[in-house]
Each structure stands twice: as structure tokens, then as C-alpha cells.
Amino acid sequence: MKQLKRGLAFLLVLVMVMGSMGTGVMAAPTAKTGKKAAVKKVAITKPDTKTLVMKKGQSFTLKTKVTTSGKKVSKAVSYKSSNEKIVKVTKKGKLKALKNGKATITVTSKADKKKKATIKVVVKTPVTKVKLNRKEISLTEGETAVVKATVSPKKATIKKVSYKSSNKAVAKVNSKGKITAVAEGTAVITVTSKDGNAKKATCKVTVKKAGQTSGETPSAAPTAAPSQAPTAAPSDKPAPAPSDKPSETPKPQPSEEPKPTEDPDPYDPNQKLDLQLENSDSDSEAYAKPSIPTVSDNEYTLMWSDNFKGTELNRNDWNVETHDAGWVNAESQAYVDDEKNIYVEDGNLILRPIRQKNADGTETITSGRVNTQGKHDFTYGLFEVRAKVPTGKGFLPAFWMMPTDENLYGQWPRCGEIDAMEVMGQENNKLYGTIHYGNPHSEKQGTYTLENGNFTDEYHTFACDWEPGKITWYVDGVKYHEADDWYSTTEGQGTVAYPAPFDQPFYAILNLAVGGSWVGYPDENTKINSSAYIIDYVKIFQKDSYDEDVQAPEKEPDVFKEPDADGNYITNGDFAKDEALDGTGNWQFLTTLGGDAAAVIKNKEVVITTKDQGTADYSVQLVQPKLPAKQGYTYEVTFDAYASADRAVGIAIKAPNRSYKAYLEDSVNVTTEKQTYTLTYKMDDTDDANSRLEFNMGAKDSTATLHISNVSLKVKKAPTQEELDQYAAKKVLTDGNCIYNGKFQEGTGRLAYWDVKKTEGAQVSVTKLADGRRLKVVGAKGGQPEDVTISQNALPIAEGTDYILSFEAKADKATTIQYTIGGMTKSVDVTAEKVKYTQKFSKEEVSRFANKDFASLLGNVGEIYIDNVRFEEDALIMNGKFNAGTSGFEVYVDGSASASYVVDSQSEDNALDLDIKNTGDAEWKIQVKQGSVTLEEDQWYTLSFDIRSSMARSIQYAIQRDGSVHKDVNGMEDWTPYVQETVKLDASAKDYTTVTKTFLMMQGTDTGCIFNIALGGGSNTTQHRVCIDNISLVKTEAPKEEEKPEGTNLLKNGDFSNGEEGWSGEVSSPAEGKWDFTENNATVTITNAGTAAWNVNLKQKNVTLKKGAVYEVKATLTSDVDRTAEFACMDRSNTNWYVQDANLINLKANEPTNVTFKVGVGDGKTDNGAYIGFNLGKISENTPDASVIMIDDVSMIKISGEDSGDTEEPEEPEALAEVAAQEEGAAK
Questions:
Q1: Which residues pair with 696 in a beta bridge?
Q2: Mean pLDDT for the chain?
């Protein structure tokens, strides 16, 4: 019966087919077979994935294959995008990503429109690199191993990869990277990203017959990265900025991570080193003289020395500094106070690095750092050290000086730094002598290379002679560098009179760093445990006196290059003239930091071939210097380019004389087709005659050959006279002051910007640094007030603003002085005690000002001192509406992040508008901040601001201590926040989010707080816009507390029915994992438990614990494995512990565990900022690396105690600057 049915069905189909052939149009048969010609299939062969991820601005050409059954059928196809606002496609299948989003590209056969192929295109974050944990594996037949792949960046849209073996008969690999050895031989495992960009990495597998030794444990895990404990925010020096020769003075390399290695030296770190030591005779006549033969024996007197006699470091002369690893410059070592690292032997100080393996497989490197701060400080002198340095990559021994009061001229580098000696361990015959200064950071550096020998095998004498207006460096009595041209400038605040900052007390430092962003990191040849920095002596000499009446060297006037007849400032931009590209002509080609490339001019273009792209954008670089950039002008850069394969090229206009500040910094995607590229920029800075054009080909994930031609730089638009007048007009200083040089530190006689008028017999001067540098006026006998006036005109005073005038004054006797502001005359009674005087002016009074001038009338007094004159907005946070541009604020962008900003008065009402291209890897990498904010003890405040973002993201804000001022005895900086919150922003093109926080200042009054909004973190490279406006901080009354019924759960969202609301699930490096709040609980999947309990945690912050009350906290925890967790309840600063029971939680696999804890502050003050939470990282050595933990039904109920109005707002543990230090070295 079944056979009959099948037969009938076949006949029916045959009849239908014959019928259709009789009535339809038949395709032409082929000549040979007579078969019907047709399109069988349309396929997309490049990429070979279902989805392609592209970056905004990227181009990609699809490759397609049309399969036909006959030769006469057209294989032509058409392309269509489902959303051309996201991705455009040309007739030839070339895609262009326009903005973030999704689109589907359909490829249709023109011969048969039913035959189609589609690919989904996502414009977001493509994979740029695939990295494997192992490059080679040796196995025996039957063994297995797992190769793990990591894609970069971490925020890649599609992180999945595919695995493929080149020889399955030798080694097979599954979809999770598990390799199985099949038979003797070799195979290559290729791992490819599945986002369509086909980024690859390979691992060579060698399989030996059973019975042979593989030489490697198949399941061995890769070497772990060194753990770094949380650190304080750094204020020390970053790596030196580059000179015109980047090979000599490279920029910092944040992308190079410390690489732990097996120490090739088996030396026991607990045993003493066998050192070849010498000791200078401190009793000899020669010891009391400098080593420099060119100075007179009688010219200098030995003021202090230490030749390290005795058995231990003299703590009366030296301080020992302790700092965690990564404190500054991404250094690997921790500085510790340990006799193994710092000891005295045979008249030498030994600073010894020690590397040790921890029980968890990580490494710890320790070293020594000592200084004379507060014990031996000197203004000017000849500083000398005799020493031997260690050899090996990653060592950086130094003898250097820092200011005793680092805040006199501002934080590093404004304070100044003198490096008498630095030697890199991998170049132990090359010496560096450097000064750092200015804002932005500038430096002067000299080097000396020994023709024979090195600085390791023999002692050498290093000296630095510091005089007013001149610093000279010597080695073994030979001068090799001199500097006399520096400045102490704070952008937007002015320049302190020369020779600042090198006119204040400095102290000496000796240290041995191991690894860092400048020197690099130890390799397999670095013998850490058997190396040491050996110091025979330190001596400091001074002359009897120093003449500080010096002037800065006169500079040649800037010569601005003229354009050619076509208006082009680029010379030989058409490459019609052959050049050596070595800087002797118009162009210079540079390679550094691993870059291996060559450039040649031919056929009117420059051709750049690259073997190794290096580790920095400037590792491969083409430059034309000495290009003019005039304020207010808009410039246009154009060039033609094509490459052997699609690739990115960085384009920049940089300022070598301004710490390589970027006037333009962008990237273009160059394709295989020759195209013209155009970029524009407006010069808002002051005129610069020496900017330079850079083509940066390094670290772009490509070694494709690049062709560049027809380069031009032209003026696109000149400023109007009105614009020029706006640039020339006085602006509010960045510290908010409308009065320039109110501290009397700038210009000739330190009276820059002041118009001084005096009658005969009157004296006007500024006192010395020892007296605080203040204005001193001695009036003539019988003088009148107007006989001595100091004034400033046309102050940048804004309408509709409240102002406050303040100054400090002291007289030799009680008297009255006068001042005028806006045409109003005021009188002030001055006494013999220094007093700060203030006068407020309401916006109504300001509106009645007859002018915008200020003057002090001081001619009628005997002797008077005036200092710190300020006229500023009367607000706790100044210029919060940005009506005065960015005055009062600093916008900080770290070198590893990318952002630009303007105050937008066209589409916004004077809002700060930030265009962010790369957030960097830590919150502090992009900050908007204002210093000198005052918070008074026991005062309530309300902080508010408006903010919006064009993409969904988080930001962090804080008001915190200034750690550069608040330091402990070891120099550790205290950046404790008084208030700190994280805010999640929805993507919105129109609506602002108003952030409001009311808080109590529980600490002592602090007049130097820092307010900041941190916009970095997450290494997000999606370009987006953030606008900030209406920042306000006002005093307020204590908020009234809402009475809650007895038995109420005092925690927010304890059942997680509202997802993550009220909770913070955190995973911090080196831990790895992910929180999920979507199933009405908090679940974390941990793949690496890290090195500390808090590396994985769940918290609820700002919990109120009242004085005398006891609370009961309950929760349910479930783990998929046996392990231990921790309960925590503390204040924000992690200082006060509020848990009244044992806090460990023992979890059994897959068994829900109900826990109960009692918490309270006892008799302490009510704490409105406590937190409760659970620590789920590494609790002990037995903590498994991987686990899944679910937390639910968390409650806190008050069970006893009375309410109290005595409240406390304690400190937050995740201080912004504390987090900065955990992530990386200091932002300067």
C-alpha cells in the first residue's frame, strides 16, 4: 500500500512538472549538456561569518561567490543596506560604517532575485587582537591540553573565537580549545576571531610517541601576572616625555605590562650578596672636596655627607619610604622597610631588590627607597654620589631631588624635580641627567655614554651642581649637560618669576625601581635577587652665598614659516624631491619602542614598509616639524594615501615645545584604493611657531605597506577681529581669580600685571621667599593714600554673579587703608597681626559698578604687607554654570585616554561639552575637577549638577581630600572622599540628569578639598559626548529622617526584585567574573577569585547605623562548589568594623545557606555612610578559582537601641585617587 502511494505521488509530480514546462518559458540549454542554465547559490565568502563587527568610520569590502549551472548566466549581484544611516554599501560591495548600530546587508543575484545572501553588520567594537596563553605545546600521544584565547579590547562586541588544526591526524582541537594529541608529528592550531575581522593567533603543537618525555606538563597554567595591592594615588614623577629623538627619550608605555619571569638567578634572597665593595675615607682631605676639578677647592663647603659607616642606616639622616607596587610609573616593586632590602655593609648603603614567589603562584618584588626630607634640605648646592648600579632590563637606580614643600608652586611637575643620575639596567653604560618642570610637563635632559666599561662593574661619581639660573651635570668630574632655561607655569594661572621652581629647598632621594613605564620590565635575563644598587657616599656642598638676582635667558623671537604660493605650509609635500628622511631635510622618519620599518621616496610618494609595528602609535612615525599654528586660525590637513591592505593611520599636529600637546589628533582608515583625506582643526592655544605634522603607523594592528602623497597644510579660515579681541581679553584664571598675580610671584620684581604708582620717598617691593613673597609698601612720611597705588584694570567680571574680594594684610602699626573696586571706595582697618579681610558684593551691587577696575591706596601708612589678593565668584564651587569658560576647573585627560572639550554656547547654555573617544582603563583617566573647595566640620551640604551622555555609561563624582597635601610620615597620600557616588546615565540626546547629594562633613574643616567628576574607565573606545552644567555646592540644614515602622527592612531592594538598584556588584583586577541581577537575585560567575577577599564583592552603601542601636542582617547564599565567603559591615574608609560576630560563611555545594549577623556602631557616632556586603574573592589558600554564587533575601532590621541625632558621615573606601593608584601610576 505504501509503495502504491509513493508511485501515485511520483506520477502526480511528473504531470505538474510537464505541465509547467509546456506553458512557461524554458531557460536556454547549454551547448554541451542541454541542461538548464540557472543561478544555484549566492554566498558571502569574506567575511566567512554570519556577523561582521565594524568600528565607526571603518571600511570593509565584501567578497561574494555566485554558483551557476551554466556559463551564460550572469554572476552580477546587487547590494542593499537595511539602514544606510548605520552602514552604507557601494555597488561594488564596499561597506562604510557611519555610526553605532546594526544593519543587514543583502546581496542579491541580478539574474535570479530569489537567490540572496545576507550578513548582519554591527557597528561597535571589533576585535583588534587575539592572544593565546601558549605559543608552543609539547604533548605525548593521548595527552590533552587547553589553549586559552583572549581578545582585545576587553569590550569587544563579539568575543567568540574558532579553533582549527592544520593536521588533524597529529592533533585535534575542539570548539573550546581543548587539544588532543593523536599521533607523532607537528600541527599548528589557528585561533580566529568570529566577529568577521579574522584576527588570528597560532600555537605550535609537537606530539611525541608515548614513552617519550614531552618536556611540559600538558595542563600547566600560564604564569600569573604579579598581584598589586591597592595603592594610594601617586604624586611622584611620571616617565619623561619624549624629545625629538624618541629613541633616546621614549614616551611612557602604558600598554607594556609587567611580565613575570622565572628568575634565572637561584640566589637565596635570605642570604647576603657577595659584593665587591669599596669605601671612601671620610677622614681624608680629598673627601671634603667636590670631585669636579673645574671648581675651586675653596669655593664649596661640605655641608653634609653620609659615607655609611656603622652597621645600619642612620635614621636621624634618612627616612625610609614604603609604597605599594604600581604606586608610580607602573613600577613592579613595592618599597618596603626591610633590612633585606636596605642595609649597610662595609661603608656602603645597599638597596637590594628581591623577587619571591607567593603561595598562589604570583610574584612579589620588593626594593628600597630612602630620602632626607625634613632632615637635610638645601636650596642650591652641589649634590654628589659615588655608586655602582645593577645591570639587567627593568632596573632603574636613581639619585635625585624633590622640593621639601611640593605645594609651594603646585603639584608635580610644577614643583620641579632634579634628577642627578638615572641609569637603565639594560643600558648600564648610559647616564641620564634631567629636570622636570612646568604645566604642562616639560623637561631638559642630557645623556652621557661611556666609551669603555659601564656603571656596574666600577664605582663612578655622579654630581649635579645647582645654582640660581643654572644646573650642571657631571660624571667622574666631566661635565656632560647644562640647563638654564626653565619656568614654573600653571596653565591659565601664570608664570612664577625665574628661577622658580628651582629656588626652593629640595631634599635628596636614593631608590632602586624595578620595572616601569619608561624603563620597561625585567626579562628572562634579569638577575633580580643577586643584584643591588651600591652607594659609597652622598655629599652635599654649598657656596658661601648665591646671587638669586638672575634673569631667564633671552630667547630668539619665534620665526613663523611662510606658506608657498598655493598657501601650503608643508615643504616637499608632493615628494617631488628625494630626501634622506633623517631630519636634515624637510621630512623625518622615526622608529622606536619595537618599531621596525623603512621609508623611501619614489614616484612622488613616500612608501613606508613595516616589519614590526611596535608598541606605541609613534613606534613608526613620519614627521614634518616647524609648522606655524596661530591662535584663532582654522587649518586644513589633506593628503592622498593607499595601502597594500586596509589599515589605520594616526594623524596629529603636536607641539614639541609644549610637552607634545595635541592640537589635532585623529585616525583615518586607509584602503587599497587611493583616496584624499581631509582633517581640520582650530588653534585655540597661543601662537606656536614649532608645531609638527605626524603620521603615526605604530600599534595599529597592521604592517600593511603605506603610500602617502600630496600632503598639504593650509589656512581654511582666519579669525575675525572680534574673535581676536576675545582671545586677547582678560579671562578668569583657572583658579577662579579675576585678579592676576595676586600672590606677587610673577614677572620682573614679581609685580607683573600690577600698575604701580608712587611718589618720591615711597618704596614698593616684594619680599623674599623666606618671608612668604608678599607685597611690601613703605609710605613716605606724611603721605596721602593716593601717593602709592597698585591697580589692575578691566577685570573679567561677569554680570549676574555674586563676588567676594579677599586679601591678607599686616601693618607695622594699626592703621586704615583704602581700596576701590568698580568705582566704589572701601576702607579697611589693618592691625599689626596678619589678618584675612573679605568683602562680599551681590550681583545687584556688581550691576552698579562704574567700571571693572581694582586699586589699593597705600601711601598713608608707614609699613604694610599685602598678599593673596583675590576677587572671585562667591560660591563654594566657582563658575559652575561655565559662564567664564573653564575658569576654576581643570579638565584632565591622561595620555592613555582620548578626549577634547569646549564650553558650548551655541547648542548649549554654556555647558562643558566633552567629546570622548577613549575612556582609558580607570575612572581617573578623564576628570573634570576643581580644587580649593571648603567643607566645614559638622556642616550639611547639598551638591548638585546636571549631566547627560550620548551613550549609556557610568560616571563617578567625589569631593575629597587633596592627597598631595595630606601625607603620612612615609609620604603616602591621603585622598579620602567626604562624599563619593557612582551614577548610571541613560543615553539621551536631549535630557539632562540632575544629580543631587546631601551629606554631612564629619571630618575636620578642610579648605583645600577637590571636587571631581571622573569620566574614564572601562577602556571604552566608542566615541560619545558628555555635557555637564549647573554645578552647585551649598550649605543646607540637616535632612529630616523618615520614621520607619518596627521590623522594616532598612536595606533597599533586598529581594533584588528591582535588579541591581541599591546594590553594587564589583569585580576588581586581578579577579575575573561577572554579576547578573536579572533573576530576582544577585549571582556572580567567578572565573578567577583574585588575590584578596574584596576582589569580588557585593555592597549596599550609605546605610545608616545609629548610635546605640543593634541591627540584624540576614541573607541566603548558595554556591555551586564548597568554599568560604565573608560578611562585611564597615565605614566608608574601611577603618571602623561594625560586625559583632565572626564573619566567615562556610558554603556547601548547591546547598542554600541562611546566615544571620548582628551589626552596630556601639557608643560611636551615628554613621550615615556605612556599607554592608559580602566578599567573595580569595578568602584563603583553599578558595577555588572558579565558582558561581547566588545571594538573595538580604535584610537589615533594627532589633534594639535608641535613636540618636549625633551623626557621622565617614569616609568612602573607593576614593577616586585611591582607585587611580590601584590602576596605574599617578596622573600628573
A1: 621, 650
A2: 86
